[in-house]
Each structure stands twice: as structure tokens, then as C-alpha cells.
């Protein structure tokens, strides 16, 4: 074997040829590739990309995308109605004045209310159920018409029934709706009375602080205490109202550090009460006067209790479900009951009945949560304006009273009759 002149270099090729195999099989019928001498090749570690997969065979089944589109289409109208209803729940209510009452009892109110029907959130929120029951009435009327015209085989029956069950159950449905609405209105009235006590207690508390704290060294604490008192109704309003921004509402009443403590608290109204209690302890007051001022806080705790009870405990759910199920079954079978007497008039009859009865039920559901129906924002603004006005006029009133005392001072004579100086 010959030695390479440069032993430090290595060669990756070889000239090896299997001579015995070629000599013994020179005339064999091997393929051409096997007759060629083998050679060594360096293989790459990167494999070529696989061929693309064949396209899936066409299928007649609906794809999930089409199913989702159908479901989203069916949910579009209810979602739209819910958005309108929630947008209406977040609108600010206004307190009535004399001009509002004149407009409210105007003889043109009926025409005005009729023309504004399409702007009513109560009516717009009823579009899904009323549209659904009207569609069921159209289907039943179309089916019965097809059976009467012999467009369907003879074994298809006409959907009709006696109206006697409806005549017997109509008073029960009316009483159920009346009791449901009455129970909701009693909750609204209870919420209104609770807020009336809170507003009256806030005004009285602020008046006692303005008149009772006279030490000039406590002026800073006195002003802070008055702002805490004004902040309590706002905090309670944000506590019972959905999607309220308490930081925005309190930024003009509390300092930044106090506001940060309130926002970090889990129960904001009780945190404001704690600020009020600590401020009363810091003030230099007589014990009887401090006890009298601390007793005013009880109306705040009572207001929190009533509001949280109304928020956390609705009308018994079995009552609400019974009313809803009764209304649904009533209107699903109403076209069948009225077919013999009305025929295609069952469509407008079902529409009118569903719109009327479901509207009564919807009003009961809306006023069941009383706080969005009350003008809480304006009530809080009125309280703040009243307290600011009392603070601004306190010194003016004191100066006028002191002037009157000086002008009308009396000096008693020995015989008991006063002499004017």
C-alpha cells in the first residue's frame, strides 16, 4: 500500500472497487445502478420538506363556523335589547320641580307617551319575547291554514282547543302580575324612605357640627369633618349603584390621602363613617356634645343596612320564575286557543297580549331594584350645596346676630322696667 506524501491530511473519498464481485458476475443481469462502483457521499441532516397534505374531501355537514354564526345571529336581538336596558339603568334621574310637575300632568301626556314609545327602554327590552311569540303565532296560523286548504296529508290535525281553560286561569294571571308589581313597588318605596332618612340625617349632622364646633383651633378638623359628612351619601350611592366611579365622585370632596384610604377599603361607606368617628374624637368638645354628635351616626348605619338588604335579598325567586313561566306558556298556547274565533287575527292578538302583559312584568322587574330609579346623584348634589351654603352663611349670620344684640341691649332699672340705651 502506497504511503501518502502528506500524512497530516485526510481524504474523504475512496477508490475501493469490489473486484472479485465484478469478475464473477460480469455477465449477470444486475441493474445498471448496481454495476456502478459505489461511492461515499456526505448526507445533509436537513430533510426536504414533506409534500403538502391532500385537500379534505367535500362534506355535506355544516361547519362549526356556520353554526356559531347562526347562534350569534339568534342572540343579536336579545343582546341589543339588554344593552339598551342597561344603558337606561345607568342614566341619571332628575328631581322634579314645579315646571316638571306641570309638564308631567299635562293633558297632552297621552299623545306624547304614545309618540315616544320607540324610545322607551321598557318597550325596546321586550322586543325579543314579543317577537318570538308573534313568530310562533305566525307559524301556527300558517300550519292551520295549510291543513284547512289540504296542502298537507289528511292525518295532520288542525291545532285548536277550547277557550275554557284560559277563561278560568286569566284571573289567576292577573292577580299574579298585580302582586308581583306591588311587591316590587314596596321595595322601591322602602329604598326611597331609606335614602330620605340618610339625606335628612346628613343635613342634620352637618348643621350640628357647624353650630356646635366653635373652637378656632379645630377649624381644620371641622372642615374635614364636614367634607366627610358630605362624602358619605356619595359613597353609599356608589356602593349600591352598578358601574359607579367613586374615585371621580369623591375627588372634589376628599383629599388625596384620604381618598386613597377610602378606595383601598373593602366597604367604602363604613370607611367614611370611621373617618367621621375619629374626627369627632380629635375635636375639643364637651362630652355631652360629642355624645350627641356620635348619636347622629346611627342613621348612617341604618341606611347602609336597609340598602344592603334591598340589594342582597330580591323578591323570592320562585315567585319571579312562576310569573315568567306562566306568561310564556300562556302566550305559546294562545294562538291555538284563539284559532277558531280569530284565524289569522291570532297574530296581532298575540302581539298585543304579549306586549301588554310582559310590559307589566318588566316594570315590576325594573323597580325591584329601587336605586337606579331614584335620583341619587342629584340628591347628593343637593346635600353638598346645602352644606356649602350653610358654611358660607355661618359667619354672616353670627355677625348679624351679634350686631342685633349690641343694638338692642337692655339695662334694667331699680323698679324692674328696662331702659333702652
UniProtKB/TrEMBL annotation:
Molecular-function GO term, any one: voltage-gated chloride channel activity
Keywords per UniProt: Ion transport, Membrane, Transmembrane, Transmembrane helix, Transport
Annotated coiled-coil segments of the chain: none
Compositionally biased intervals (Pro residues): 47-61
Compositionally biased region (Low complexity): 37-46
Membrane topology annotation: Multi-pass membrane protein
Region Disordered: start-end pairs: 1-65
GO biological process, one term: regulation of photosynthesis, light reaction
Biased segments, Polar residues type: 1-17
GO cellular component: membrane
Location(s), subcellular: Membrane
Record flagged with keyword Transport: yes
InterPro entries: VCCN1/2, YneE/VCCN1/2-like
Major subcellular site: membrane
Signal peptide location: none
PANTHER family: UPF0187 PROTEIN YNEE, VOLTAGE-DEPENDENT CHLORIDE CHANNEL 1, CHLOROPLASTIC
Protein's recorded name: UPF0187 protein At3g61320, chloroplastic-like
Organism, scientific name: Herrania umbratica
Gene of this entry: LOC110413693
